[in-house]
Amino acid sequence: MQDLIAYIAIRWDEWGAYLKGLTEDDIQALFDRYSALGPLPGIMLPLGEALLPFLPLVVFVFANALAYGMWLGFLYSWIGVCVGAMLVFLLSRWFGRRYGARIRQRYPKTERFFTWVEHRGFTPIFLLSCFPFTPSVLVNVSAGFSKMPLHTFLTAIMMGKAVMIFILSYLGSDLKTLWEQPWRLAVVLAVLVVMWL
Q: What is the DSSP track for 136-159?
């Protein structure tokens, strides 16, 4: 066990030294190699975040915008996120058919929540999908357990994630400009606050 801890500590130090020594040209070369792999990593990383919610979606969207450019990075991230959300929704729907009645009986207060989601489903799902730090797995699973129609869920997710990913792609496509012109970030935050209200 101590050998494993020592090995991890050495590797961690090596990674730290590597990251500290990166230049702007090294980072650009890394993104060029990433984009040379084609659209698959740009789609699969955001899709993986839908299935494994501890992964950093914001980092993946920024990386896609830097590697592929704003528009292609947006498109690949959006496809990956929407496909991942649909997979989680369909898995939840399948489990909901099998265990949903049992969950609603065991936790009667959830009935009110699911009824609310079924009646007002589009608006909350759309708004929650617009924000980058919303736990999307909870949104997808709760919509899957409800009786919300698939087309309503897909429309809300596709539109909401488009807003969120476009904003992140816009910010991430040129980090240097964002640093030099911080008003862009203030405009994006103002738009998000207005949408929330």
A: HHHHHHHHHHTT--HHHHHHHHHH
Residues 6+ apart with CB under 8 A from 150: 89, 93
Angstrom distances, CA of residue 118 to CA of 20, 127, 146, 169: 50, 15, 6, 31
Residues 6+ apart with CB under 8 A from 47: 80, 81, 83, 84, 87
Are 47 and 121 contacting, i.e. CB atoms less than 8 angstroms apart? no
Distance CA 5, CA 7 (A): 5
Token code pair at residue 107: 């936790």
Six-digit token pair at 100?
């949903």
Give per-residue pLDDT as tens, 116-157. 777 777 888 888 888 777 788 888 888 888 888 888 889 999
